Amino acid sequence: MDSRTDLRRLPIHVATAGITVFDGANTSPTTINSKRRGQTKQVEQYKIQLQQCQNMLQNTAAPAAYIWNQTDQTISKPITAQDTLSNHSAAIALRQAAV
């Protein structure tokens, strides 16, 4: 490989005469594109973190909803039984009054 070829690939290099040359036209777009790629990656990471937080909240709320549903069903059974007993008692009282 020629040493001149290697030096030409760098944005700052020493020309054959020994004068330092800076390629501002190439450096600026390269720097901007690099920053944009970094920002895009950061936004993607923020989206992933947000999705993870939403999942954690849903997973935290799910057991409480399940427990409440079970509690509601447990409370409904005795109330239903009590209502049935009250209806039978009223029916028996009507039969006894009719006799």
Describe this entry's structure for a reader.
The chain has 99 residues and is mainly alpha-helical. The protein has one domain (3-98). 82% of the residues lie in helices and 6% in strands. The chain is built from 2 helices and 2 strands, in the order H-E-E-H. The chain has a two-stranded antiparallel sheet. A hairpin with a 5-residue loop joins strand 1 and strand 2 (20-22). The longest helix is centred in the middle third of the chain and has 75 residues, at 24-98. The protein is rod-shaped, with a radius of gyration of 39 Å. It starts with a helix and ends with a helix. The model has no long low-confidence stretch (mean pLDDT 79).
Keywords:
single chain, 99 residues, mainly alpha, two-stranded antiparallel ribbon, rod-shaped
Question: What's the SSE blueprint?
Answer:
Blueprint: H1 3-8, E1 12-14, E2 20-22, H2 24-98
Antiparallel strand pairs: 1-2
